[in-house]
TrEMBL record:
Organism the protein comes from: Vireo altiloquus (Black-whiskered vireo)
Entry similarity comment: Belongs to the Vang family.
Extent of Basic and acidic residues compositional bias: 36-45
Chain coiled-coil ranges: none
Region ranges (Disordered): 1-86
Membrane topology: Multi-pass membrane protein
Protein name (record): VANG1 protein
Compartment annotation: Cell membrane
Keyword Cell membrane: yes
Length: 525
């Protein structure tokens, strides 16, 4: 039990960091953001895409790790282990209030569009029923008898409205995946078309039927049937425009992450720029590895160390400008570049060696820990009721034996800011519950997975800004470039049109496959 407490206290560095490092991280982020606000001279249009607010996948309180963190952060940082589990600052209060205001505005905008669509849909479904019932209510005695024909038309209208209701629910009333900066053009055109169509039918019905009190009830019912048929055709048009039109690939987009250069290729149909950006973001969370700023600190520190060793002397006097000094430093750094590649080579080789060494230790520790667990069968549970444990207790029992090896491996691979002790315990109990092997447990930590695998608080990207020189409602074209920016990095998207392929046919007669054996004096035949 004491070993478990010692390991837990050692592992508490996963979720607590010093306030000084947080402040330095915020100041560095502010310095990184300041030059972006000076690009107002560019003729670009900037809009915002924000995904709907959602609860975190795991309820842990692990903090975000700093970029400039060294490999021994667990021993050098101050861990707060008092009774308080939550802390908040003035910056956090301001950020939370801003997020609440933004979420309220986005919710109002989203629900307003949904309300308008719901009201219009209710009007569409009630209109055919009103066309049939109003003559029965207002001038029932003057109507001509219809008989079996009207009854058959009633059944037809009922089933057509049911089909239309199901199709409308499946096509339009779905959970929104994101909040787009501009309206969807085709959806807005369909809503306008439906409104004008129903309004024209009501106008004709009021002038030709209500004012004159038409007694031909069969004609009135057929008029309602024609309205339902036209609505079914409009629904078919909506399926073609909203769903089928974008299925045929016409463009290939290359998505590059600006920080580490990771790239992916996707095929898209004839979409608008904002909907193409939404498709890119959906694939980004699934295909791209999670953004880890700690992996970028090695190259930055190496370049800073090389530049720090240079000294510039001004031999021309104080009147010389600073540009000459900068050129001298760049030239000196270029001369030292010949020896820097050796340092890079040995640093990478040493890092790979340490990763392989700690990976082997982690694999052995996890396999030994899993050997202490045995799933009890139904008849064995009755024999030793006092020794049984649930998956959570079993995970807490074997976790101390593997905690140190796992902690060292995560530090070496710069993954410690994404893995809290609570999340590891939950994953371990999940593997024990489903009778998974040690390799299945280690797969999450040995192979960096996509962004969706991690907690939402570790994504570093919740709100995106779409920057494009073209209007975001315009369609994709060959050579279009747009950028998706978030707080720490950006995704550069380059669009290329799939070329027109001309395929010809050449017929080969099967009887033309004839061969001759050539004999030479050196052959063994």
């Amino acid at each position: 039990m004491s070993a478990a407490m010692d390991t837990e206290s050692t592992y508490s560095g996963y979720s607590h960091y010093s306030g000084h490092s947080k402040k330095a991280h915020r100041q560095g982020r502010d310095r990184h953001k300041s030059p972006r606000s000076k690009d107002g001279s560019r003729s670009e249009k900037s809009v915002t895409i924000q995904t709907p607010p959602a609860e975190p996948l795991l309820g842990n309180d692990a903090s975000r790790a700093e970029e400039g963190q060294d490999d021994n952060w667990g021993e050098t940082t101050t861990a707060i282990t008092g009774t308080s589990e939550h802390s908040i600052s003035q910056e956090d209060i301001a950020r939370i209030s801003k997020d609440l205001e933004d979420s309220v505005g986005l919710d109002c905008k989203r629900y307003l569009g949904l309300t308008v669509a719901a009201v219009l849909g209710l009007l569409v479904f009630l209109t055919p029923i009103a066309f049939i019932l109003l003559p029965q209510i207002l001038w029932r005695d003057d109507l001509e008898p219809c008989g079996t024909v009207c009854e058959g038309l009633f059944i037809s209208v009922a089933f057509k409205l049911l089909i239309l209701l199901i199709g409308t629910w499946a096509l339009f009333f779905r959970q929104p995946k994101a909040d787009l900066p501009r309206v969807f053009v085709f959806r807005a055109l369909l809503l306008v078309l439906i409104f004008l169509f129903v309004f024209s039918y009501w106008l004709f019905y009021g002038v030709r039927i209500l004012d004159s009190k038409d007694t031909n009830y069969q004609g009135i019912v057929q008029y309602a049937v024609s309205l339902v048929d036209a609505l079914l055709f409009i629904h078919y048009l909506a399926i073609v425009l909203l769903e089928l039109r974008q299925l045929q690939p016409m463009f290939t987009v290359k998505v590059v992450r600006s920080t580490d250069g990771e790239s992916r290729y996707y095929s898209l149909g004839p979409l608008s720029i904002q909907r193409a950006a939404l498709v890119v973001l959906e694939n980004y969370y699934r295909d791209f590895t999670v953004y880890n700023p700690a992996l970028l600190t090695a190259s930055k520190s190496r370049a800073a160390k090389h530049m720090a060793g240079l000294k510039v002397y001004n031999v021309d006097g104080p009147g010389n400008n600073a540009s000459g000094q900068s050129r001298a430093m760049i030239a000196a750094a270029a001369r030292r570049r010949d020896s820097s590649h050796n340092e890079l080579y040995y640093e990478e080789a040493d890092h790979e060696r340490r990763v392989r060494k700690r990976r082997a230790r982690l694999v052995v520790a996890v396999e030994e820990a899993f050997t202490h667990i045995k799933r009890l069968q139904a008849e064995e549970q009755q024999k030793a009721p006092g020794e049984m444990m649930d998956p959570r207790e079993a995970a807490q029992a074997i976790f101390p034996s593997m905690a140190r090896a796992l902690q060292k491996y995560l530090r070496t691979t710069r993954q410690q800011q994404y893995r809290s002790m609570e999340s590891i315990l939950q994953h371990l109990s999940f593997c024990i519950t489903n009778n998974m092997t040690p390799k299945a447990f280690l797969e999450r930590y040995l192979n960096p997975g996509p962004t969706l695998q991690y907690d939402r608080d570790r994504w570093f990207s919740k709100q995106w800004t779409l920057v494009s020189e073209e209007a975001v409602t315009s369609g994709l074209q060959d050579g279009v470039v747009f950028v998706l920016k978030c707080l720490d990095f950006s995704l550069v998207v380059n669009v290329k049109k799939i070329p027109f392929i001309k395929l010809s046919e050449e017929f080969i007669d099967p009887k033309s496959h004839k061969f001759v054996l050539r004999l030479q004096s050196e052959t063994s035949v």
